């Protein structure tokens, strides 16, 4: 089995008497694009800082690429584009990427080849001799993405990577994320643009107060999948145990059960399974939900995006 790109167990961060992250437990696989979703104040940024070794956790454990948090050898294989960045505006695009290449210990030939490759890839090759002070917000976002990829990272953290980008820029970032996945690079993506999450991620985690409340396979949003709500009395562990053959993300709240199913045509079999185990089924309601609807359903109407 491959080593997870990210693995945490009850990672917690307190500032004084306040817990910004109460207990983050998650696992991201190698080559996976993983979405990190939650309302403002959910602890997303603090979680990312702990994973990157920028903030020490109060308790809990974590590992990146199989190494403990803060391990310098592992960090050398990681790229990061923060949400709020302040680059050296007096540098040109060339000089900026060269600086980061030197910090990474790249030899001159590899550095210059990678610099030119990335400037071309993010659409900034014609601005290579322009100072960053002349760049628009979208151009700064793109040069920031280029620096995050200088070291051919095995794992990339992207915190709101499409903030300030126009539709063409968002498409460019989306294409780069797809390329990274094809190359086997893991991407940890935090974004408020759920439409971007839908078309780029393999899985997403919904968090509240730094705790994962739900993890969902994005494939469950495809045209053949539905969110099924069942109203029934007499649900038992035995009756619930067999439902996984038709779907996942099974949750029970009183006499209501919700689950993601792959095909609406499985409804008769699901109903028969429950009835044969003594469950009184009153309604089965399939509903194809958008990621935004699932976000609100999971985290509450007041959670915000």
How would you summarize this macromolecular structure in one to three sentences?
The protein is an alpha/beta fold. The protein is built from ten helices and 14 strands.
How is the secondary structure organized here?
Elements: E1 6-15, E2 18-28, E3 33-37, H1 44-51, E4 59-64, E5 67-68, H2 72-75, E6 78-81, H3 93-103, H4 108-121, H5 137-148, E7 155-159, H6 167-182, E8 186-190, H7 194-200, E9 203-208, E10 211-217, E11 226-233, H8 237-241, E12 247-253, E13 256-261, H9 267-275, E14 280-287, H10 291-299
Parallel strand pairs: 3-8, 3-9, 6-7, 7-8
Antiparallel strand pairs: 1-2, 1-4, 4-5, 9-10, 11-13, 11-14, 12-13
Helix pairs in contact: 3-4
Describe it for me?
The protein has 305 residues and is α/β, with parallel strands linked by helices. It folds into two domains: 6-216, P-loop containing nucleotide triphosphate hydrolases (Rossmann fold), CATH 3.40.50.300; 224-287, Alpha-Beta Plaits (2-Layer Sandwich), CATH 3.30.70.100. The protein is 31% helix and 30% strand. The protein has ten helices and 14 strands. A six-stranded mixed beta sheet has the order 6-7-8-3-9-10, with helices on both faces. A four-stranded antiparallel beta sheet has the order 2-1-4-5. β4 (59-64) and β5 (67-68) form a beta hairpin. α3 packs across α4. The longest helix has 16 residues, at 167-182. The mean pLDDT is 88.
């Amino acid at each position: 089995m491959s080593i997870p790109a990210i693995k945490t167990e009850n990672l917690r961060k307190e500032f004084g008497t306040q817990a910004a992250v109460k207990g983050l437990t998650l696992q991201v696989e190698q080559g996976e694009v993983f979405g990190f979703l939650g309302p403002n104040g959910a602890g997303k940024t603090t979680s990312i800082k702990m994973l990157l070794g920028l903030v020490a956790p109060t308790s809990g454990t974590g590992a990146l690429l199989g190494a403990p948090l803060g391990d310098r050898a592992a960090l050398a294989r990681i790229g990061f584009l923060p949400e709020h960045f302040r680059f050296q505006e007096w540098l040109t695009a060339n000089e900026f990427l060269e600086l980061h290449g030197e910090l990474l210990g790249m030899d001159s030939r590899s550095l210059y080849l990678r610099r030119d490759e990335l400037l071309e890839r993010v659409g900034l090759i014609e601005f290579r001799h322009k100072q960053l002070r002349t760049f628009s917000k979208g151009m700064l976002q793109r040069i920031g993405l280029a620096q995050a990829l200088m070291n051919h990272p095995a794992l990339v953290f992207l915190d709101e990577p499409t903030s300030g980008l126009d539709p063409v820029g968002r498409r460019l970032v989306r294409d780069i994320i797809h390329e990274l996945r094809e190359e086997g690079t893991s991407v940890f993506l935090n974004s408020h643009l759920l439409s971007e999450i839908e078309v780029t991620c393999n899985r997403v985690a919904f968090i509240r107060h730094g705790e994962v409340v739900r993890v969902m396979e994005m494939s469950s949003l495809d045209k053949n999948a539905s969110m099924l709500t069942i109203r029934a009395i007499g649900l038992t562990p035995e009756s619930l145990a067999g439902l996984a053959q038709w779907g996942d993300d099974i949750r029970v709240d009183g006499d209501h059960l919700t689950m993601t199913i792959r095909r609406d045509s499985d409804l008769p079999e699901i109903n028969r399974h429950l009835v044969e185990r003594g469950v009184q089924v009153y309604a089965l309601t399939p509903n194809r939900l958008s990621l935004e609807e699932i976000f609100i359903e999971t985290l509450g109407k007041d959670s915000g995006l």
